[in-house]
Design brief:
alpha/beta; TIM Barrel; five-stranded parallel sheet; 9 strands; 38% helix; globular
Length: 280
């Protein structure tokens, strides 16, 4: 099997994604800087406020960093976040970044819904994001990977071109459902909140080492950098996010596709998959 190379002979492709997430009233993330847990059954008001940082400040800082580096990102946005932070959505779109689907609220699990409710929720999210951002999302990532056997087919039915729920390969593949085709794109191996209890520089070192490995060892390398606005949008980690982008930018032969461009590259080259065995 003969495989093409990335456009313009690039050695590594880099996807950059930012998450703008929101939890329903009274709900909060399952992770938090607190070291002593609350009593069982208590409402975590501090956790809820901590989660609001992303829309109020974090996303603005990350967009500024991306703009300063001349890098375009996909912003995976809960529809609830788009409703709560319309000015942030305007800033994202005004800077040339694309808003993509990421469920309604981060505490919702699509697998908890009936198939009819799940499909209606996906469509509702796309409608809200289109209204708030001015364009309908082309792709999707399911919150907490909480989809089921129906999810991908519903995405195809809604006309989406790609999703980032792929966990079985390190490169894209075309996925076939009863309703048609969609490109499955791998998600990040190491997002920013992995360093919540460790050294923020771990975030830099992971991507530096992955990038160097692809440059030295593997053709068609793909690095997917992802950052949460409510955690990585804080100065402590945003600084590391900026360092990672600067590190990537110091190398030649790097392709920065959007997921849509990556999916189109797969379709243009009539590729169903890029198996590891065919790359060597």
């Amino acid at each position: 099997m003969s495989l093409p190379s990335w456009p313009n002979g690039a050695r590594v492709a880099v996807l950059v994604s930012v998450l703008l997430e929101a939890w329903a009233d009274g709900r909060s993330p399952g992770y938090f800087p607190r070291t002593t847990p609350l009593k069982a059954g208590q409402t975590d008001r501090a956790g809820a406020r901590w989660s609001e940082y992303g829309g109020k400040e974090g996303i603005w800082r990350l967009v500024k960093i991306l703009d300063n580096r001349g890098v375009k990102a996909s912003v995976f946005c809960n529809a609830l976040a788009a409703e709560r932070y319309p000015d942030a959505i305007k800033q994202i779109v005004g800077s040339g970044h694309r808003v993509q689907g990421h469920g309604y609220a981060q505490n919702q699990y699509l697998m908890d819904f009936s198939p009819e409710e799940q499909h209606a929720t996906i469509r509702k999210c796309l409608d809200i994001l289109e209204e708030k951002s001015g364009s309908r999302p082309e792709g999707w990532m399911t919150p907490v990977y909480g989809g089921d056997q129906h999810t991908i087919d519903f995405l195809v039915q809604e006309g989406l071109k790609w999703h980032c729920d792929a966990l079985d390969l390190s490169l894209p593949r075309r996925e076939t459902t009863a309703s048609g085709h969609i490109v499955a794109i791998p998600w990040s191996e190491f997002v920013d909140n992995r360093v919540l209890k460790s050294n923020p520089m771990d975030y830099f070192e992971v991507y530096q080492n992955q990038f160097n490995y692809h440059q030295e060892q593997e053709p068609l390398g793909l690095v997917h950098l992802a950052c949460h606005s409510h955690f990585g949008g804080r100065p402590l980690v945003a600084n590391i996010f900026d360092k990672i982008l600067a590190f990537f930018g110091g190398h030649k032969n790097v392709w920065y596709p959007s997921p849509t461009e990556l999916a189109q590259w797969m379709n243009d080259n009539k590729l169903d998959a890029l198996p590891y065995s065919a790359r060597f």
